[in-house]
Task: structure prediction
Amino acid sequence: MGEIGEVLRVESDGDVAILTLNRPEKRNALSDALIDALANAVEAAQRSSRAIVICGAGDHFSAGLDLAEHAGRSAIEGVHHSRRWHAIFDRMEQGPIPVFSALHGAVVGGGLELAAATHVRVADEGAFFALPEGTRGIFVGGGGSVRVARLMGVARMTDMMLTGRSVGAAQAEAWNLCQYVVPAGEARAKAVELAKKAAGNAEMSNYAILNALPRISDMSRGDGLFVESFVSAMTATSPEAEERLRAFLDKRAAKVGRPQ
Ligand code: 1HE
Result:
C-alpha cells in the first residue's frame, strides 16, 4: 500500500494492484503529476503483480485532461505532452499483465482515452461518457482517435466530439466502450473480481492475448493468420500450458461455466 505524490493511491489485493486516481477535488483531472504517478505505478505493478485495476476516488472516474495546466502550452509542448500520454498508454495496453478499469461518474475526454487503453472496462450503471474536446477548442491527444474510434467507430466518435453528446452506461456498452455494466457502486469490486480471474491465467497466454491481438487486428488477414499460428504454437507448448491441458484431461480442472 502507498501513495505516489498523493495524486495516486496504490494498494494491492493478492496478485492485483489497485491504482486509484486520487484528485477528487478536481474530479481526477489528469495533471502531469498524475500521469507521471500512473506511469510509475503501472511499471512497478507490471514487475510485481499479475493484474491491475484502475479506478477513481470521489464521484467520478476522471474529468480528463487538466485544463488548468493545458492553457498556455505551445504547439511543440503540446506534441510532447500528447506523445508522453501515448507512450504510457501503449506500455499499459501492450504490456505483460492485464489492466481492468472501474468506471463511475464522468468518464470524459482524456479519462475515456485512459479507459480505452485498459483491456476490460467495467462501468457503474450511472457512469457517463463524453468527448467535450470540440466544445473546449481542442482535440483528443491521449490516443483516442485510434483507440476510442476503433472501439465505437468513427461516426459515433465524430458525433460525440462535434456535439458534446454524453452517453450513459447502457449505450456505452452497446457501443463497445465498456464490456460490463454493474449496479451503482459495484464497479470496483467487479473489476477486482475479474482481474483476479485473469491473474490466475498462464502468464504466456495473458501475454499473447494482450500483445498479439491488437497487433494482429492491425495486420492483413493473411499476415494475421500466419502470426496467429506461431503465437498459438508457442503458447501451447509452454510448460504451464502443458500442465493445464493435462489437468483438464485428468478431470482436475474446472469446466467452462454457463452464463450467469
Ligand atoms: C477540472 C476539470 C478538468 C473539473 N481540468 N479542472 N474535460 C472536460 O471538459 C470536463 C470538465 N469537467 C466537467 O465537465 C465537470 O467538472 C464534471 C462533469 C466532470 C464534474 O462536475 P462536478 O459538478 O462534479 O464538478 P465541478 O464543480 O465542475 O468541478 C470541481 C472542480 O474540479 C472545479 O474546480 P474548483 O477549483 O472550482 O473547485 C473544476 O474546475 C475542476 N475540474 N474538471 C481541470 N478537466 C490528452 S488530450 C485530452 C483532452 C481532454 O481530456 S478534453 C476534456 C476535458
